[in-house]
Design brief:
globular; six-stranded mixed β-sheet; 1 helix; seven-stranded mixed β-sheet
Length: 516
């Protein structure tokens, strides 16, 4: 009897002790606008537990006028290692989620989100369908255009080519960065497709397909090597070379340690291959996207002539061993033909970091705003080279030092080439050169130029990353013109000012803001 009483007493103590370990988890933070950092008031933030140990919690709160929110979650047992997901939604209906452990408190989770959706776009997609290896049009042929449905935007439409083999669709009210898949069927009932970003409208997608009797086919296969071992998860693009043009016609995803890809029943002809590791690969980041056999660049790829046979072509990925760590920084932006105030950012473009002997060190890809960066780099001389299929690149060489620890290298894509700096197509009515003064600017700057006629222009100021700072429409007169602009709200740094005519031609100058 005494033993039973003692057991019940100890059990009660254990229960009491376990309850005594329960803690209150405090999670708080702020929600601010990613453009400018202003607090976002009356914005919903959610928190939910992962149900570890049978603990359930879910709640929503609104931020206050300072963008601040907080949760106080009682009775959390640290023994259960309860985790929480803190979430909020941005202006384009994308969730921002952070997972935190409830074993420590307090916990701070800050969000930076967009609050104003970008303007809706009108996207024009057009092109021609030709017989393979020729420019003979294929009339009355179906071409399908479908959105990727991200952000809740849905579009699916089939259009037929006219007698000249041409097709065209206009898509209204498209959210920014919407991806479309343009596809058609060839005589083998195989799909040819190309993925395009609506931001780059107008978009031209041409197809070269077999018609009538199917042409002879072959099989192309091989393995992807990362050093001396086989790559696990990689994407291999099959790129057809026709009439001096290159087009991705198919992709294959490797998914095991054999690193094998295979393209079966493909039309005979000339091809190149490109392999890129997926982000779930054990080797991701250690090897750059590589063209067959082992080239970093598309124009160094070896051409494969495929006949009615099966051939093996192994791809050896080029290693990016990394760079020595230091206090330097290289960043920049890539935009396509700056014909508009804000430009058109080029997202998903590979950017290589090379040493002064053009040997690869690392690579990255541009984000949705066309930005890229390499951080914490030791001082020295480096080469920055963007790389994209069919795009010719002029690389940039920069040197980091104590006097120049950071460098910004912007690129412009225009007419199939990418080059350093800003595209400059001076309006025809501006005679001679023009300038910004004083330079550096403190509070007030001016531009001065001579015009051959009365005209209307747009004067645009933007920062190094291409972000629009100010935009002014001005009427100018024939003869000398001086137009002032304010720099009082600008922080110290490098900026650009552009004079743009109605026809889209523009000319840009760099200026520095330096305040005492």
């Amino acid at each position: 009897m005494k033993k039973a009483t003692l057991f019940l007493f100890l059990l009660a103590c254990l229960v009491f002790s376990t309850q005594g370990w329960a803690m209150t988890v405090n999670i708080s933070g702020t929600v601010t606008d990613i453009n400018g950092g202003a607090p976002v008031a009356s914005h919903t933030v959610s928190v939910s537990s992962d149900s570890s140990g049978g603990f359930f919690y879910y709640n929503n709160v609104l931020t206050d006028n300072n963008g601040f929110y907080s949760f106080s979650i009682p009775n959390v047992n640290p023994i259960d290692s309860v985790g929480f997901t803190v979430s909020t939604l941005d202006c384009i209906s994308v969730w921002h989620n952070y997972y935190v452990s409830g074993n420590t408190t307090p916990i701070t989770v800050n969000f930076q989100i967009c609050t104003t959706p970008p303007p809706l776009l009108t996207v024009l997609i057009s092109g021609n369908v030709y017989e393979a290896g020729t420019v003979i049009p294929v009339p009355n042929h179906a071409v399908t255009i479908a959105s990727d449905s991200s952000g809740g935007f849905f579009y699916y439409y089939t259009v037929y080519t006219n007698s000249a083999g041409a097709y065209s669709v206009t898509i209204n009210n498209v959210p920014g960065n919407t991806t479309f898949l343009v596809s058609t069927l060839d005589c083998n009932n195989n799909t040819q497709s190309q993925s395009v970003n609506g931001n780059s409208s107008p978009i031209i997608v041409n197809f070269y397909i077999c018609v009538g009797t199917p042409p002879p086919t072959g099989t192309l296969w091989g393995q992807v090597f990362a050093g001396n071992v086989l790559a696990d998860f990689a994407r291999v693009d099959l790129i057809r070379s026709t009439n001096d043009s290159l087009q991705i016609v198919d992709s294959y995803y490797t998914n095991d340690s054999a690193g094998m890809y295979i393209f079966s029943n493909i039309a005979t002809g000339n091809y190149i291959l490109m392999a890129e590791l997926e982000d779930n690969s054990l080797f991701y980041g250690q090897y750059a996207p590589t063209y067959y056999v082992a080239s970093l660049y598309w124009d160094g790829a070896e051409l494969i002539n495929l006949g009615q046979t099966t051939i093996q072509n192994d791809i050896h990925l080029v290693e990016t061993p990394g760079y020595a760590v230091g206090s330097g920084d290289i960043n920049g932006n890539i935009q396509e033909e700056l014909k508009s105030a804000s430009g058109t950012p080029v997202s998903g473009m590979e950017v290589l970091l090379l040493d002064q002997n053009s040997q690869p060190l690392a690579y990255t890809v541009t984000d949705v705003n066309g930005n890229y960066s390499f951080s914490d780099i030791s001082f020295g001389t480096y080469v920055i080279r963007p790389e994209k299929l069919s795009i010719n690149t002029t690389p940039a060489t920069i040197t980091l030092s104590n006097d120049n620890p950071g460098a910004t290298v912007n690129f412009t894509v225009e007419n199939g080439s990418v080059f350093t700096g800003i595209s400059d197509r001076k309006p025809t009515f501006i005679t001679g050169d023009w300038s910004v003064y004083p330079n550096p600017v403190t509070d007030q700057g001016s531009v001065s130029f001579v015009s051959s006629e009365n005209a209307s222009i747009i004067l645009i100021v933007y920062d190094q990353s291409g972000r629009l700072i100010d935009e002014m429409q001005k009427n100018i007169v024939r003869g000398e013109n001086t137009i002032g602009f304010s720099a009082s709200m600008l922080s110290n740094g490098q900026y650009y000012i552009k004079i743009m005519a109605k026809d889209g031609n523009s000319s840009t100058r760099k200026f520095i803001v330096a305040k005492h």
